[in-house]
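Bumping with the actual sequence this time:
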Amino acid sequence: MEAAAQRLLSLGVTPAKIPHHLTGVEIVTAEARAATERLRPDLGKAADKIVCNSDFFGWWQGTDQPAFDVIVGNPPFIRYQSFPEPHRARAMAIMGDQGLKPNRLTNIWVPFVVAATASLKPGGRLALVLPAEILQVTYAAQLRSYLTDHFERIDVIACNELFFENAEQEVVLLLADGALAAATEDNTCRVALTAAETVADITDIRPALLLDRAEPKIICHDSEKWLKYFLDNRQISFMRELRDAEITSSMSTHASIDVGVVTGKNEFFVLSTDQVKDFGLEGYTTPLVSRSVQLKGSQLGKADWISLAADGNRVHLLNISAAQASELSAKLRQYIEDGERKEFHKGYKCSIRKPWYLVPSVWVPDGFAFRQIYDFPRMVLNASGATSTDTIHRMRSHGAKPERVIANTYTWLTAASAEIEGRSYGGGVLELERPKPSGY
């Protein structure tokens, strides 16, 4: 705000007229006052007319839009469940009005970007600090398409060094230019990604020169992840051609990948052999793989699972059938009551089940797919009769031999596709996301 006010003054705008050109919105009263006082040395009394102490979404709905030529901001990163009403309802309504469909995974920075975009006059510009998740998360897929439909040019600046000291969140700078009067799906938006090693590599160079170095990417107006923009156009085109070629096919053609068993409380449901014996739960368990470290090779056989169990690993799933639930043994009833004393049944995922101790979606897969990887996508043939927890994905073949499906995933094409389609975390971890199981 201070830099913008000083720039307007340098262009000859008088302090009294600057409130007609500059607006700030801040929900925290103390911060709004601090911003006003920061402006006062340059603007005097006019500073009192610039910063609105308001919920951004409520303020947005009460003003005429589009209203601005430029919007600069650092929206908050708040999970859907943590964002209070009525602010959340306002944010979701704005997204709906713009033709988007938010859900319970939508972080609140997403509607901030949507509202900011809708606030721009034709030709307007947007500059925001956003979480790096914009490049890859599924809940931002609609937003990526929305942005490429609304702007002539988008630049994303990423950095291996954190932009802000002591900040745990990895962020990128989103610079969008040339807002369109009307969005169009055939807009020839120029999208470029600039990757820097250090913050100094960004700040020590003229912005125009920095952005001109980036190669404009050939975009598709869809929800593709923007991670692919780390590749050059030749590589992107090659990957797209391979994806559509007759010699390749998607995993979904031959098999389905689903999440592992969601117990809601592994402490209660995932047991060692000694625990099964001590609590008298024989006959109520199913063989289980509870951690990816338990999958050592290309196949898990029955002997492998027996060895894991003998070594004290928690590889038994408490899997009470509906028939068994109608006539609980004394020891099983005692174990359930002990879990209730510890309030395990009050956890969200347990509380929505009736009864809470019946775990859904327990089936034995043809193979296991690692959810988190660091060097190469991994799949393991399942010949053990075990299922897995949700730390590991489950693969079910559609008719093809499971071993052939798994063998054909060990290609460089699969590895490259995983890098583009997966979700990158710090420390070199890549997560291959799957949809939430129904009911959660």
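The tokens above came from a reply further down the thread. The longest strand covers residues 120-131.
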